[in-house]
């Protein structure tokens, strides 16, 4: 039972990070009907910018709480800005000029931009993993085990990740369902030509969708960096594939689906590693995806394709 | 607005040619829609009526010719900018956002409105179409055809347009509902002075309503006159009125 609880906490943490990245995939897919294949690298850029800022600010675990908090918020904002600019650029260069051309074309340009960015980071930052000493330390023991066995612990960083993700997802859902911008996004998703006829600037709305997805990926990037303490130029690809899987599992195009899918993939990976073997955790995640898609082709919360009007 | 501008028609379409790739859909169309009038365009399926409506709104753009609204050449402008100039369209097929509620669809209609007059405008739409008020929390995709058409018109009116473009509002609707919708259009024109450009295949009601009317065949205007004149013409009756009279 204690072991289960511990795995649950770890799984939710990982799943939160996947979920935040998955939102970017699902929103872009929702609005232009295509996968943003450069999205994983936006997460990576967010992570690297955060790393550079933290090093530049000389942040360590010994900093005072108020300073640490303020500095991390600053780091987050800068990372979000850079990631957003990159997300915007991807849309402008890889997607917009090719809108209306054959469907695979933007996919190729996006993969091209993704490779460019990976190589750029590899050349400028080096190919080796970059470590970062823990900054957010401490935690709580929920269950004290017997002789150090069966203890259940939650670290401060895990709390930060889960709470931040929860707040962001709540805020984001409200933004999509209640605000003018969110309504415009949904309108473009359902019928972009009609949205334009009502005065919506469709191009700008699509740009903003890329930017919003990128900003969330940057949050995930910073949290990933603080949680695992190592990053390299390749993390965007790996996390991207997982988050993409999460988005498909939850039902691509569905916002709650992306969140649910992210959490599920995180939990499956963690539990599989915890109870079976670490080597096959990805196989487990993908197998479940395949099984779900066989019985629910549009994902767990996805909309069946019949509703086309 | 200058003196001259207030006398010229609200909308002028001049020599417009629109292509879909190599296919020519409009072959030099001239249409005037004077202020405060209802102008009707009738024509068979595939004549190019919807293409004209969409060309006015900037999507697709004409290859030749000009569209002048309120004295301003709007030909090259992007659609969203054209639509923020007091022009609204209820397009062919209604194009209700199916997964948005009735209220959200109406909120989308207010997107281009400059002032914050939402509550008053909403009340007015609900007065015109009480059915929409009953169904405001329901998803657009679950409405009946008639309700969807009311919503499409209501949505277009939410931006407080001066010019309303209506593309086949009667398509596929029961006669009683068609009558109701045409009554609303006429009332808006009479009481608010709303200028209406109405496209119909089903011509009887549309011609009766119209101050002026055009007939389009194969992407070109072939006849025009007052609604009454066209109604009286044998070739119009034969081509567009058979079975159209309810
Ligand atoms: N998106 C399009 N692509 C290619 N051809 C089109 C398109 N839309 C309409 N057309 C063609 O243009 C002509 C005029 O169509 P349309 O304007 O819809 O006529 P109407 O509204 O009078 O029925 C038709 O021959 C139609 O097939
Ligand atoms: Mg038509």
Automatic annotation (TrEMBL), chain A:
**Which residue windows are transmembrane per the record?**
12-35, 42-61, 67-90, 102-121, 157-176, 206-227, 284-302
Keyword Membrane carried by entry: yes
Subcellular localization is given as:
Cell membrane
**Keyword vocabulary terms for this entry:** Amino-acid transport, Cell inner membrane, Cell membrane, Membrane, Transmembrane, Transmembrane helix, Transport
For this record, the Gene Ontology CC terms, alphabetical, are:
plasma membrane
Taxonomically, the superkingdom here is Bacteria
Select a single GO molecular function from the record's annotations and give it: L-valine transmembrane transporter activity
- Record keywords: S-adenosyl-L-methionine included? no
Task: Give the record's membrane topology.
Answer: Multi-pass membrane protein
Q: What is one GO biological process annotated to this record?
A: D-alanine transmembrane transport
Q: Which family does it belong to?
A: Belongs to the binding-protein-dependent transport system permease family. LivHM subfamily.
What is the designated name of this protein? Amino acid/amide ABC transporter membrane protein 1, HAAT family
Automatic annotation (TrEMBL), chain B:
Domain ABC transporter spans what residues? 11-243
Q: SUPFAM superfamilies under this entry? A: P-loop containing nucleoside triphosphate hydrolases (SSF52540)
Q: Is Cytoplasm found in the keyword set?
A: no
Q: Which Gene3D superfamilies match?
A: P-loop containing nucleotide triphosphate hydrolases
Q: Pfam families annotated for this entry? A: ABC_tran
Does the record carry Ribonucleoprotein as a key word?
A: no
- PANTHER family per record: HIGH-AFFINITY BRANCHED-CHAIN AMINO ACID TRANSPORT ATP-BINDING PROTEIN LIVF
Q: What is this protein called?
A: Branched-chain amino acid transport system ATP-binding protein
């Amino acid at each position: 039972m204690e072991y289960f609880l511990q795995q649950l906490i770890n799984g939710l943490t990982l799943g939160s990070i996947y979920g935040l990245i998955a939102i970017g995939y699902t929103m872009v897919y929702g609005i232009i009907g295509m996968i943003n294949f450069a999205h994983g690298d936006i997460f990576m850029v967010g992570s690297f910018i955060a790393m550079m800022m933290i090093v530049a600010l000389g942040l360590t675990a010994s900093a005072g709480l108020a300073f640490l908090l303020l500095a991390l918020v600053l780091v987050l904002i800068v990372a979000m800005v850079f990631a957003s600019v990159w997300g915007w650029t991807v849309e402008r260069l890889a997607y917009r000029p090719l809108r209306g051309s054959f469907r695979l074309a933007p996919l190729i340009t996006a993969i091209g931009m993704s490779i460019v960015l990976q190589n750029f980071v590899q050349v400028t930052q080096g190919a080796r993993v970059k470590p970062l000493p823990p900054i957010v330390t401490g935690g709580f023991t929920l269950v004290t085990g017997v002789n150090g066995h069966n203890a259940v612990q939650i670290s401060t960083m895990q709390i930060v990740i889960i709470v931040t993700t929860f707040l962001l997802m709540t805020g984001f859902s409200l933004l999509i369902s209640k605000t003018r911008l969110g309504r415009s996004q949904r309108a473009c998703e359902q019928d972009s030509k009609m949205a334009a006829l009502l005065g919506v600037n469709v191009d700008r709305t699509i740009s903003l969708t890329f930017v919003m997805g990128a900003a969330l990926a940057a949050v995930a990037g910073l949290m990933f960096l603080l949680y695992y303490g190592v990053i390299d130029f390749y993390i965007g690809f790996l996390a991207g594939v997982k988050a993409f899987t999460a988005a498909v599992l939850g039902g691509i195009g569905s916002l709650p689906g992306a969140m649910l899918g992210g959490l599920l993939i995180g939990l499956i990976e963690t539990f599989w590693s915890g109870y079976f073997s670490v080597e096959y955790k990805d196989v487990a995640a993908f197998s479940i995806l395949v099984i779900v898609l066989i019985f629910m082709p549009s994902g767990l919360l996805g909309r069946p394709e019949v509703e086309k009007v | 607005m200058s003196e001259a501008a207030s006398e010229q028609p609200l909308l002028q379409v001049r020599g417009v040619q629109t292509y879909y790739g190599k296919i020519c859909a409009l072959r030099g169309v001239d249409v005037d829609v004077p202020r405060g009038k209802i102008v009707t365009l009738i024509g068979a399926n595939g004549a190019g009526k919807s293409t004209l409506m969409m060309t006015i709104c900037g999507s697709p753009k004409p290859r030749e010719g000009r569209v002048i609204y309120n004295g301003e050449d709007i030909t090259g402008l992007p659609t969203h900018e054209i639509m923020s100039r007091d022009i609204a369209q209820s397009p062919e097929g209604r194009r209700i956002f199916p997964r948005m509620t009735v209220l959200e669809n109406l909120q989308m209609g207010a997107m281009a409105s400059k002032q914050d007059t939402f509550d008053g405008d909403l009340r007015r739409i609900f007065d015109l179409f009480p059915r929409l008020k009953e169904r405001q929390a329901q998803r657009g995709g679950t409405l009946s055809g008639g309700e969807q058409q009311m919503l499409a018109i209501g949505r277009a009116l939410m931006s407080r347009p001066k010019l309303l473009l209506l593309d086949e509002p009667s398509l596929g609707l029961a006669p009683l509902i068609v009558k109701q919708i045409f009554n609303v259009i006429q009332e808006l024109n009479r009481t608010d002075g709303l200028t209406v450009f109405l496209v119909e295949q089903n011509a009887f009601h549309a011609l009766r309503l119209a101050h002026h009317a055009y007939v389009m065949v194969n992407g070109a205007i072939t006849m025009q006159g007052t609604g009454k004149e066209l109604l009286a013409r044998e070739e119009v009756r034969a081509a567009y009125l058979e079975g159209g009279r309810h």
